[in-house]
Amino acid sequence: MIQTPAIEVENLMVKFNAKRILEEFSLRLAPGEKVVLTGRSGSGKSTILRCLLGFVVPETGIIHIAGERLTRETVWELRTHLAYVAQEPDLGSGRVQEIIKRPFTYGANTHLRENLARIPEFFERFLLPVHLLDKDVATLSGGEKQRVGLITAILLDRRIILLDEVSSALDKANKLAIDEFFRSQKDSTVLSVSHNPEDFSFSDRVIELPYNSYKGKQ
Fold this sequence. Notes:
Layout: E1 7-16, E2 19-29, E3 34-38, H1 45-52, E4 60-65, E5 68-69, H2 75-78, E6 82-85, H3 96-101, H4 119-125, H5 142-155, E7 160-164, H6 172-184, E8 189-193, E9 205-208
Parallel strand pairs: 3-8, 3-9, 6-7, 7-8
Antiparallel strand pairs: 1-2, 1-4, 4-5
């Protein structure tokens, strides 16, 4: 039986101010597959994630999420399939506990509030002391913010997870904790971006994006 791809990208082309960032880029991820995108800065890795989220509209190309085409009409519904964690998560302001709980006050996520009971479990799993829950998010280190953003994304229980350099501020032990977690998530589809794909050894495939001479030139 042929499975519907979790993510399917066909012939994507993206320009910023007449500069080509991506050209004829295609990608397919099966449900449960883990893939890491790597390449030089400017090769378009993060741009691909932003296209999947609908934050960047490509010049040409087609994107399907869980079998449904991404359009202006479907983008809000399709985002409910995705969890995204940025390299520098914009967590807002307030105590860490409030930050994590905030997305669960939105109508699309209220049915997942019982997942909040797992916060201590995930803090332990990702080597964070529980007392950080009472700290102001502004006092956290970069690595702590990355893990808080990751835990929030996991609690939202999305089947497709997009990770943009989420281990860049972490030491070896913390990277290993993330690796072990995603190895255990057989049903989760993960698309990661990293300058160092060794940080995502749980991945099934590594795709290196080319950096062509036209990139950065008009």
